[in-house]
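Researcher: Structure prediction, please.
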Amino acid sequence: MKEIVDILGAYQKALADNKKSALATVVKVEGSSYRRPGARMLVTDDGLLTGAISGGCLEGDALRKALSAIHQQENKLVTYDTTDEDDAKFGVQLGCNGIVHILFEPIFPEDKFNPIEILKAANSRRENCVIATLFSIESKKQPGSIMLFREKDSFEKITDEILGSIKNDAFDVLKLKLSRFENYAFEGEDCDAFLEFIPPPIQLIIAGAGNDAQPLAEMANILGWEITVADGRQTHASQQRFPKAKRVLVAKPEQLLPQIEIDELTAFVLMTHNYNYDTALLSLLLKTQAPYIGTLGPKKKLIRMLEELNQTENELRVNGPIGLDIGAETAEEIAISIIAEIQATFAGASAGMLKEKKNPIHYYDLKGNS
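Model: Predicted structure follows.
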């Protein structure tokens, strides 16, 4: 979602400056590639790039293709086949040994269903959603971004008879929380469809506004997480100390939770360095469905807190000591450790070394399924 937010900001600036723009989206990958389907980049007619569709090797050529799409005012699909040893013919030298299909869509501000408006709709609410993008590898017809779907509403560009089928498949994507590819007959031709599952960003609640919470908030902001900082001390909990936080609250534990809407991507980090505050907040959190709770400090502190609360059976539910074992000492290193553990938890990843992973980092079969 961070990339989408950056693109929306860049588009608004381009619009204010009367610049034309195009959106480049990775819609399908076969084999290995630096970015997965759903990676996006906004290109303005003066060559400004926001976002990324590769590790940097594709961007130069993609700029030219995007400017062509803007000039010709039509969607274009470009395929980069790096399984060919002579990938120098593309002028990109990807070296990823994969096939990458990228859709370029010029943005027409007067079109209320243009790709940017669809991204705005995705970012407008803290809910899971699906963006449907139609493209064709065989045909010149490239319908592009045509729909945003949520469980209770949708925002669609087309009225074709396939719309019902797309919505049914999008509902399955929401249910499984996994992007997928489908094929539809659109306007008399076969079209591939990328149904992209997009969750909201992680919501990080930092209980504690000490100096060691500042790098944690800074790093979470870089990742595009929604940050709330809370503390009972007015001298510590201020927007000036935490300029990147969405909210900074001066609140006691019992005042904090009524102001937080806990969902499946909400993480609480208890780091007030006030034993009574942390214990009181932990007591309240254990009565909720908060999916991630972490406490800063030694294991014996957590055990003592749980014993006082008669909640020793909840020990495994709480991450304490919080963070991954990376040898962290400084506040910045500890912040990295905490961020990495939260990211791994919500991604369902092992947090081990990639060199020890048996399977590819990102796997796609020849049909582009993840």
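Model: The longest strand covers residues 21-31.
Researcher: Thanks, that helps.
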